[in-house]
Amino acid sequence: MSNFEYLLSPINKIKGVGKKTLSSFNKKKIFTIFDLLWHLPISRIETAEDTEIDDLQVGKNYNIKVIPIKYNFPRIRNLPNKVLCEKNGVKLDCIFFNSYEGYIKKLLPLNEEIIIHGKANNFRNKFQFVNPTAKKTNNLNIINEDSRYSISDGLTLNKYNQVINSVFQNLPDLEEWLPKEVSSLFDNVSWKECIIKIHSEEITKIRNTKYFKRLVFDEIFANFLLSSDIRNKIKKIKKKNKILDFKYQNKIISSLKFKLTTDQITSLKNINKDMESKQKMFRLLQGDVGSGKTIVSVIAALNAIKAGYQVAIMAPTEILAIQHYNFILENFNTFCNPEILTGKTEYKKRKNILNDLLNNKIDILIGTHSLFQERISYFNLGLIIIDEQHKFGVNQRKKLSDKGGKDCDVLVMSATPIPRTMMMTIYGDMDISLIKSKPKNRKPIKTYSKNETKINEVINFIKSEILKRNQVFWVCPLIKESKKIDHQSATEKYKNLSKIFKDRVDIVHGAMSKEEKDKVLNKFNDREIDILVSTTVIEVGIDFPNANVIVIENSNKYGLSQLHQLRGRVGRGNKESSCILMFKAGLSENARKRITILKNTNDGFKIAEEDLKIRGYGDILGFKQSGLKKYNLADPIQHEDLFNIAEKEIKKIEKNNIKINNFNKLIKLYDKVAVINETI
Q1: Is 655 left (phi over 0), alpha (psi -120 to 50) or beta?
Q2: Which of 196, 300, 598, 627 is 20 to 30 A removed from 272 (C-alpha atoms)?
């Protein structure tokens, strides 16, 4: 067995791991030796150095060398067993409850020097340790019992430590996989040294050391290698290049009532270059809410149609699909023949649409995820545009790409701003275009915070906005009142506002059927109502240019990114817009910080970064959906410098055409190879 294969061996290859122990490890998702190594200690018991018995302090943990000199095993039931120990002529007792004589004799053999560990107590002027752990002074354990692990039922800490110590005593030296110049950044410490260190030291104490940072970098590098491999395999998919007509494109742009921003123009150039290429496009168009991603995607769609291809646009919600359809129909009907397919489309019309689609009578089909069902066939699908509600993983992205065949390009749009380091991790398999600047006619949303005691001021402000023919979103966290949670419910707020604004108010929430929600949203869109009370169902997938005020109840209960997404539901037109953050008295420090950040900036990327600093990245940005595993140690915010180094190394590898296979051991160790095999 090679050194590398040892780490990937099943856990039951370790001496002492039988069926029962194996089952306990498996419950913790520990299946291989490498899994065990990445099951890191949750804490370490802080202990004082070996000291004299007379110097012990009650309540403090100690490792202390003693010699057991006498057993006391009372025959009276419920009395504890006792072992008298001494050090330099001074005595102490080791007290054992619910322990057998055989176990105690094996743990503390008489007249042998033993290291005991435990908390010092004092009883009748004599120090004692209750149920201490112990080991011989000549014990060769690399990891001692001070490391504490999360263990499942059926597995004792002693047994766990025995197993992991067995692993460390047999841990092989691995051939270095990092480039020399990178390894030197960490003083050339080996992976083996680092993994031992992280098990034997408190993580908080070594977080800034070369050992910790080396392991962090390995995680990042493994992820980036995976993304690079997927990206390269996608680029190897050859397609028929599209012949674009740029005079035609300029005609489209000239028909617009506004000028494109620099970011929009740059993004469009990147998309055009991809479509003209013989390599399949797999591009993310990333932008903040209201940055103008949609118009860039529509122009790209019209370019593809002019080149002789069909386009499919998938929206996250039916109402947004309708809005996309109406937008294209109203502004670009001379350039294309759009059609919409939703769950509400009648059978006869659906049948006609599918027939027209197959016969190339429809060049843009707009809808939800149903556009990619097996029964739908296209004449010549050349571009898929996905306006995503949730992030698609690498598997899903590949399936969507396959729908159009090898000649079909894929453009994914995301309105969730995330820091660059997170972007590299989640979307590393895609080329990325960023739109940060907002259209010139878009005014910044003014954000205010109001204590709920000032509700009358808010109501009067709403009245004045309605008189100006503006519309209002009023967001509440819950559908119904909860006795446990002190939030204003949406239903109660709807009742209260109806008393003031009569039939100009309606409500939408997640418990309603799709038909019911669409009916209310259409009423709002047609301006039959002025105020829409809702839960967070409006966070994504809704675009109403006439709505320029949003009130968010209990804003302190939301994360920054979610508040920003909600705020982005207004400010879509050229009017001044307002966001009012309502809160109760007694804000926590973090809640106050979130509200202050939101009031000070409209930059979604800055907000996302601050949100991550406050909450940590966790799974809030789609790690589960991305197909890339959550990091054990790496943090995209704290370790930005290491992410940047990893990115530079990947660029070197790609530029010099270095084979990713050279790093297969690293990729396999970090359990990424399965993702590669599943996706490509």
Answers
A1: alpha
A2: 627
Apex 473 CA angle, 470 and 475, nearest 5: 165
Residue 312 pairs in a beta bridge with 365, 384
Res 628: pLDDT:
43
Q: Give me the pLDDT at residue 436, please.
A: 83
**Measuring CA to CA, which residue among 1, 4, 30 is closest to residue 17?**
30
Domain 246-435 falls in which CATH fold? Rossmann fold (3.40.50)
Contact call for residues 182 and 217 (beta carbons, < 8 A): yes
Q: Specify the range with the lowest mean pLDDT, choosing from 427-441, 519-533, 635-649.
A: 427-441
How many CB atoms lie under 10 A from the CB of residue 344? 13
Q: pLDDT digit string (tens) for 23-38?
A: 888 888 888 888 888 8
The architecture CATH gives domain 446-601: 3-Layer(aba) Sandwich (3.40)
**Sequence-distant (≥ 6) Cβ neighbours of residue 145 within 8 angstroms:** 117, 133, 135, 157, 158, 161
CB contact at 8 A, 504 and 492: no
Q: Which residues contact 201 (CB under 8 A, 6 or more apart)?
A: 44
Q: Please indicate whether the domains covering 246-435 and 446-601 agree at the CATH topology level.
A: yes
Classify residue 307 as left (phi > 0), alpha (psi -120 to 50) or beta.
alpha
Q: What pLDDT, on the 0 to 100 scale, is given for residue 398?
A: 60
| Residue 626 pLDDT exceeds 50 | no
Q: What is the C-alpha to C-alpha distance for residues 544 and 550, in angstroms, rounded to an integer? A: 12
Give which of 216, 190, 187 is closest to 203, Cα–Cα: 216
User: Closest Cα to residue 518, out of 320, 316, 349, 353?
Assistant: 320
Residue 407 CB burial class (10 angstroms; 0-12, 13-18, ≥19):
middle
Helix axes 191-200, 210-235, angle to 10 degrees: 130
pTM value > 0.85:
no
d(CA 94, CA 5) in angstroms, rounded, equals 44
Mean pLDDT of the region 71-84: 90
Residues 618-639 as b/e (b if ≥16 CB within 10 A, e otherwise) read eebbbbebbbbbebebbbbbbb
Nearest to 372 by CA among 385, 360, 361: 385
How far apart CA 680 and CA 662 sit, in angstroms, is 19
- State the DSSP string of 404-418: T-TT-EEEEEE----
Kindly indicate the confidence band of residue 616, based on its pLDDT and cuts at 50, 70 and 90.
Answer: low
Residue spans of the domains in the chain: they are 1-45+157-172, 46-145, 194-236+634-679, 246-435, 446-601
> In DSSP terms, which residues pair with 126 in a beta bridge?
123
Q: Name the fold adopted by 46-145.
A: OB fold (Dihydrolipoamide Acetyltransferase, E2P) (2.40.50)
Residue 79 has what DSSP assignment?
P
Q: Position 413: which residue type? A: M
Q: Which residue has the tokens 């490792």?
A: 63
Whether 53 has a pLDDT exceeding 80, the answer reads: yes
